[in-house]
Amino acid sequence: MRTSIQKFGKTLMGPLSIIVASGLLLGIVSILQNPALVGETVSNAVIIQNFIGGVRAIVSMMFGLLPILFAISVATGMAKEDKEIAGFAVVIAFIIFHVVIGYLLQLKDITLETTSVEYLLKQGLTQIQAFEISNAYETMLGVFTYRMGVFGGILVGLWTAFIHNRYHTKQLPTAFSFFSGNRFVPIVIIVTIPFISIATFFIWPYFNSAINGLGTLISKSGAFGTFMYGFSERLLIPTGLHHVLNQLIRFTPIGGTAVVDGQTVSGALTIFNSVLASPQPDIDTLRQSTRFLTQGSHAFMLFGLPAACFAMYKTAYLKNRPKIKGMLLASALTAFVTGITEPIEFAFIFISPVLWIFHAFMAGLSFFLMTLMNVAVGNAGGGMIDLTIFGILQGTYTRWYLVVLVGIAYAVIYYYVFKFVILKFNVKTPGRNTDSELSEEEIEVASDGDQLGATILKALGGKENVVEIDNCISRLRLILNDTSLVNESLLKATGSMGLVKIDTKNIQVVYGPKVEQAARSLKKEVKK
Fold first, then answer.
1. CATH H superfamily, domain 440-527
2. Residue 220 burial (CB < 10 Å; 0-12/13-18/19+)?
3. pLDDT value for 158
4. CA distance 361 to 473
5. Helix %, strand %, coil % of the chain (to 5)
6. DSSP labels for 263-274?
7. Cβ atoms < 10 Å from Cβ of 127
8. Which helix (H) or strand (E) is 260 found in, with range?
9. Which residues lie closer than 8 Å to 189 by C-beta, 6 or more apart?
10. Rounded to whole angstroms, how far apart are CA atoms 457 and 79?
11. Rounded CA gap, 178 and 368, in Å?
12. Percent of the chain topping pLDDT 70
C-alpha cells in the first residue's frame, strides 16, 4: 500500500511543471506591468500590453484545465503498461463523468441559471448564501457540474488506471476478439464510469464540506498551521509522501479558497497564480496564499542546507575531502538555484535522526516566521530563481529582504548544529568513512557517463533482478525481484546520494537532477 501511495504521489507531480512554468511567465508579466520597476513608457507600451494579455489568456486556460491534466497524469502514471491507452481512456472517462453529473443536476433543476447569484438573490437569499451556493458549481469543458477542482480529475484518473491495469490484456471470445486487449479498456470505462458519477453525485457535497472545513481550520490556525505544514512536509521526505501533502495544499481547498476577479479558486498555488494574472492584484489575498509556498522554503534551501554541506565538508577526514568536495558543492548549488534538496537531505536523514528532526523543525520554523512577517514570495520551486522573480524583482511589498536576513541566520545555525552533531555523535556523513568497498578503478568506471546505465544495472543485481523502472524529480523508483542483491557502494559511486529500501521488492535511489539521465541510461541498458 505504501508503494502505491508513493507512486500516486509521484503522479501528482505531472501537472506541476506546467503550472510552475506558467507561474514564471506570470512573474515576468507582473514585472513588466510594474512602472516602478520598468518605467511608465515600457509598462504602458502597446506591445507589452498585448504580450501581457496573451500570457494571461494562456495561463488562465491552463488553470482551467488543471482537473483534466491531473486525470491524465494520474491515469498514465498509475498504469503499469501501455500508458498511452490509459491516457486515451481517461479523457473519455473525464467527459462522461461530468456529463452524467450534469444530467443528474439538471433532473433536480440545478442549472447554470438557477445557481446564478442574480437568480438566488431574487429567491430571497442573502448575498453570502447566494455566493456560497453559486460557487459550489462550475462549467467544465462546456458541461455544468460540481466544482470539484482537481479531486474530480484524480478520482477519474485512479478509476481509469484500475480498469486499465485489470483489463488491458483481457482476451474475449474469437467472435469478439477485435475488442480484446487495449480496445476493451475504453469500452469498460464507458460502461462503468457512469456508476462512479452517480456515487459521486450523492457523496461529493458531504466530502466537499469536510474539505472546506479542513481548509478553514488550517486558515484559522494562522502561523501555527504553516509551521505544522513545513515540519510535516520535511518529515515526510524519506517516504516520498510529501508530494501528496504538497499537491493537496497547492491545488485543493485545504490550501485555501479565494474569489479572484469574480471567480472562486482553490489551493495556495492556484490562488497565487490567479492573483498574479489579475489586472488589479489583491496583495492581501496574495499574502494569504504564499504562506504555504516557497517563501517558507528559501531560508533552508538557499542558506541552511548549503551551510550544512560546508559543515559536512569541514568534518570530513582530510584525505577524503578532495573526493567529496565536488559532490557537496554540486548538491549545494542545486539546492540554492533550483530548490532540489534531496541529494543533501539523504546524506544525513537516515544516519542521524537528530539532524533529521532538527531540519524538519527548522523548515516548520521558517514557514512560521515568514507568515508572522507577512512575506509574500510565491511559486513552487524554492530556489534562487523563485526568490529573484517573485521576490526581489516584484518590489519591496514582497518583503524579500526579510527572507535573506532569516536565511543568513539559518546558514550560521545549520553550520554549527551540523558540525556539533556530526563530531559529537560521530555521524558518518560523506567523507567520514575510513574504508571503501570499491577500488579507485571501480569508482572511475562507475562515474563514467557512457557506462552509467551498465554500472547501475550491475549494482542492482543484473537485468534479471529488475522488474520496473520509474523516476520522479530526484529519485529512481525501482521494483526489483530482491533488494538484498543491491550493491549500495557501487550505486554511490555512480553519483547516488542515498537509498530507500521500502521492502524486499521496492527501492528508491536518490540522484537529484541527474535522475533523468540515470533513468534513461538504465532503461536503455535493460533493453539490450
1. Glucose permease domain IIB (3.30.1360.60)
2. exposed
3. 93
4. 24
5. 70, 5, 25
6. EEEESHHHHHHH
7. 10
8. strand 257-260
9. 89, 92, 93, 96, 160, 163
10. 24
11. 60
12. 92
Taking a C-beta distance cutoff of 8 angstroms, is the pair 20, 380 a contact? yes
Where exactly does CATH 3.30.1360.60 map onto the chain?
A: 440-527
Strand duo 466-471 + 475-480: pairing: antiparallel
Q: How far apart are CA 342 and CA 348, in angstroms?
A: 10
| CB-based contact 32:52 (threshold 8 Å) | yes
**Scanning the structure block, which residue is given the C-alpha cell 543533501?**
344
Active site members: 472
Q: How far apart are the first and last CA of the chain?
A: 32
Alpha helices in 236-315 (DSSP H): 242-251, 268-277, 283-290, 298, 305-315
Paired residues of 146 in beta bridges: 137
For 253-294, how does the pLDDT look when each residue is reduced to its tens digit (9 = 90+)? 888 888 888 788 888 888 898 888 887 788 888 888 899 998
Q: How far apart are CA 110 and CA 145, in angstroms?
A: 9
Q: What is the pLDDT of residues 478-504, one digit of tens each?
A: 888 888 888 888 888 787 877 777 778
Beta partners for residue 480, in sequence order: 466
Count of CB atoms within 10 A of residue 191's CB? 10
Q: ∠ at Cα 275 (273, 278), nearest 5°?
A: 110
What are the C-alpha distances in Å from 169 to residues 179, 180, 190, 465? 11, 7, 18, 24
- The whole-angstrom separation of Cα 178 and Cα 164 is 17
DSSP annotation of 1: -
Q: Residue 360 — pLDDT band, cuts 50, 70, 90?
A: very high
Q: Are strands 263-266 and 143-146 parallel, antiparallel or unpaired?
A: unpaired
Q: Which helix (H) or strand (E) holds 76?
A: helix 66-78
Sign of CA dihedral 98, 103, 107, 113: positive
Q: How many alpha carbons lie under 13 Å from residue 140 in its C-beta half-sphere?
A: 27
Tell me, rounded to whole angstroms, the distance of Cα 158 from its chain centroid.
18
* DSSP state letter for 480: E
In total, the chain counts a number of residues equal to 528
pTM here is 0.77
Cα gap 253→151, rounded to integer Å = 10
253, 263, 301, 435 from 370: Cα distances, Å = 21, 27, 14, 44
- Which of 522, 526, 521, 519 lies closest to 474 in space, CA to CA? 519
Please tell me the distance from the alpha carbon of residue 142 to that of residue 366, in angstroms, as a whole number.
43
Residue 144 has pLDDT above 90, yes or no: yes
Sequence-ordered strand ranges (E) for 89-242:
137-140, 143-146
How many whole angstroms separate alpha carbon 58 and alpha carbon 47? Answer: 17
Cα–Cα distance measured from residue 281 to residue 289, given in angstroms and rounded to the nearest whole number: 13
Q: Please name every residue paired with 466 in a beta bridge, in sequence order, or none if there are none.
A: 480
pLDDT number for residue 145: 92
Give the span between the Cα atoms of 406 and 386, in whole angstroms. 17
